[in-house]
Amino acid sequence: MARPPVTDEELIARYGPHLNEAPPGGWNAGLEIDREVETHCCFCGQQCGIKLKVKDDEVVGFEPWYDFPFNEGKLCPKGVKRYLQGNHPDRLLDPLERDPSAPGGFRKTTWDDALDRVVAEVRRIQTAHGNDAFAMLSGVSLTNEKSYLIGKFARLALQTANLDYNGRLCMVSAGAGNKKALGMDRAPNPWSDIPLTDVVFVAGANVAECAPITTSYIWRARDRGAKLIVADPRVTPVARTADVFLGLRPGTDSALMGTILHVLVANDWLDHEFIREHTSGFGEAAAAVESCTPEWGADVCGVPAARIVEAARLWGTSATGMLLHARGLEHQSKGVENVLSCINLGLATGKYGKPGSGVSTITGQGNGQGGREQGHKCDQLPGNRDITNPEHRAYVASVWGCDVDEIPGKGLSAEEIVEAIHDGEIKGLLSICFNPLVSLPDSNFTAEALEKLEFYAVIDFFMSESAQYADIVLAGSLHEEDEGTSTTVEGRAVKINAAKPPPGNARRDGEILLDLARRLGRGSYFEFDGNEAIFEEMKVASHGGTADYFGMSWERIEKEKGIFWPCPEPGHPGTPRLYEGGVFAHPDGKARFHAVEYRPPAEVVDAEFPTWLTTGRVVSQYLSGTQTRRIAPLVEQYPEPLCEMHPNMAEVLGVSTGDLVRVTSRRGGMILPAVVVSTVRPDTVFIPYHWPGSKAANQLTNRALDPISKIPEYKVSAVRVERVEGRVEVRDRRSIALQSAEGPP
Ligand SMILES: Nc1nc2c(c(=O)[nH]1)N[C@H]1C(S)=C(S)[C@@H](COP(=O)(O)OP(=O)(O)OC[C@H]3O[C@@H](n4cnc5c(=O)[nH]c(N)nc54)[C@H](O)[C@@H]3O)O[C@H]1N2
Ligand SMILES: Nc1nc2c(c(=O)[nH]1)N[C@H]1C(S)=C(S)[C@@H](COP(=O)(O)OP(=O)(O)OC[C@H]3O[C@@H](n4cnc5c(=O)[nH]c(N)nc54)[C@H](O)[C@@H]3O)O[C@H]1N2
Ligand code: SF4
Ligand SMILES: [Mo]
């Protein structure tokens, strides 16, 4: 039975102040500060509001920002500790130039020399091999303004088609699925819809560790009596409380969703009126799952048939429902099909365009949403426009004041750029906010590619593992050293405020790019006197596109604590919920079902590699780890990768927690400690990927890409696991003490 709702006041009366309630005198009691800056967390796509405390131009602590509506003061361990990275001794303070004789292989240089060198190398490579032989890679920890600037910089200053971004490893399957089915790429609902729903279906998302603040929204739904369905090869923290847990075999999501659709059709748990009035293609989608009986689904997915039927019953018979998916089903060579098979379930039961209903991706990176709209994808122009569409090109050319033919065509995607480098077709690379050596699949291959570059320049604030391969490293800015906007998981544009200037000779990322554009002789396209001016041009460039920011201003965003796009006119309030009244973003207003037939992952287990490997995250580490591996209290929580395995597998291998195991795939191998947990499928091991070198999970993963989104299949590979000599003391999953002489390599 549902617990009665409990108000904050009642809670405080009963138990005293919340943990989040500041103690008397504030969190850093007694510390005198110069100012507090309201901004947002630099990590995940939740973009929690936070107040940074600043003294002598240093961030010295934080204060919860209770008034920011999304997280109401709540923060996860990363948000709480983020301010500790700024003072790290590894912080880059000067531009660096490769010099094998210098300690660490690099020596300080001046900005003039560093930037002139970049320009000379761009010219040399492009003259000899064509413009597209120089590529650019960027990232979406960057603000909207930087994303927009990078899109324009690559096309008009570098004049290359080959620009892509690290969202290619992250949100592109969801983006492509959303655009195909719904005509627009954004979460259909604000998160305030989650507590209103009757059933929450979490598929391939470790909400508690990767979108921690979303957990509180799910709990609020649970307090109202909502049911919870979870589909994951691991019993994640939220899955422990699920009504129906679908512990599927990695890589079988479209079979699971197809079976659920089959059961919905078989039992007529459908919204016929919605299907008729607001969609097309239902017949073909239903025909594609005709043979997907519960028994078939059970066989393919390794989940009891009755449980799949029970999930379908809960979803199909509830008036409202929200399906939240993330990389678990998107990081597959059929990521787009998986997303479409989820959307089919929403459309078949009319769960769109009304409170408490929708199928939504949980966006990953800080500006994962905004960064996939402003035009720094290889196939995209601002406003989420299509770079191959003549009308879209003409509009953006008119905003940029350039000839339409000056805008290059569609370029290669991120992994394809690295493959073209490996093949010798691309010779030069400028990267910002991307650590491909750690984050791309098959890291031995990535290392070979970086080795082959004739020239590589990196903009970062730490010496990332990829930057070790660079010829020039340009010291850029931390999140709190620059201002702009970011767009959250909900599609809400929020304001990022600067707390301090960049230290030493480091420069703001945008200023580095503007300086380069001038030195490349293209300064006339880049006459911006600051980030607000970039925003003003960006919003015009977005106008009329699906991701329309035209009605926003920095001032409005700040005053209104965020604005949901589309916001097409200055007086427009923004659009928290999309598709109201069943009006979708395709020209005919209808959503499209897609016929999805199951196909297996690119690599399947066999006698030589009999175990499934899946990879992902832990709560205290972030992405390639350059930032969180430098924050001591986070490192203490989970200092090394561990290989999660089920007790049954451990028994067969003769392994107990702390024993070292060698995990080998067709690409490479690694040795790491095992941790024996009953929360993972007995045929699957899980390794988090936040570490470099011999600790990198991506030594093992497969470069197979989704044919549409080009996302790598991080979630499914075949491996062999063996016990090797040595053990370390693993005290628990969150703390491992390296007490053994033969610690991990
Ligand atoms: N702590 C922390 N939080 C983060 C990040 C981080 O690095 N650390 N990164 C941010 C970013 S960029 C992203 S993209 C998000 C990622 O957020 P999530 O997608 O939630 O995280 P992952 O750990 O990549 O994978 C999610 C779940 O997918 C499951 N899974 C594995 N294989 C399959 C499969 O075949 N099918 C299904 N259904 N599930 C499968 C895994 O067991 C895991 O529980 O997190 C964001 N938040
Ligand atoms: N095996 C496996 N691999 C994966 C995944 C997985 O689940 N499994 N997940 C994938 C996913 S979802 C993602 S999003 C990618 C992430 O992969 P990456 O994008 O490569 O990871 P980051 O750690 O964000 O690397 C960004 C780099 O940019 C720097 N940086 C951060 N913020 C800024 C900034 O504001 N300015 C500048 N100049 N630099 C900045 C950081 O220091 C870091 O060196 O990894 C992918 N790789
Ligand atoms: S949930 Fe995400 S945005 Fe919020 S504090 Fe944690 S890492 Fe930062
Ligand atoms: Mo991501």
Question: What does this molecule look like?
Answer:
The protein is α/β, with parallel strands linked by helices. The protein folds into 4 domains: 8-85, Phosphorylase Kinase, domain 1; 96-170 and 367-480 and 506-546, Rossmann fold (3-Layer(aba) Sandwich), CATH 3.40.50; 172-361, Dimethylsulfoxide Reductase, domain 2 (3-Layer(aba) Sandwich); 611-737, Barwin-like endoglucanases (Beta Barrel), CATH 2.40.40.20. Helix content is 29%, strand content 18%. It has 23 helices and 30 strands. The strands form 8 sheets. The protein has a 7-stranded mixed sheet, with helices on both faces. The radius of gyration is 25 Å and the shape is globular. It binds ligand MGD (2 copies), iron/sulfur cluster and molybdenum atom (MO).
Write a compact overview of the structure shown.
The chain has 745 residues and is α/β, with parallel strands linked by helices. The protein is built from 23 helices and 30 strands. It folds into 4 domains: 8-85, Phosphorylase Kinase, domain 1, CATH 3.30.200; 96-170 and 367-480 and 506-546, 3-Layer(aba) Sandwich (Rossmann fold); 172-361, Dimethylsulfoxide Reductase, domain 2; 611-737, Barwin-like endoglucanases.
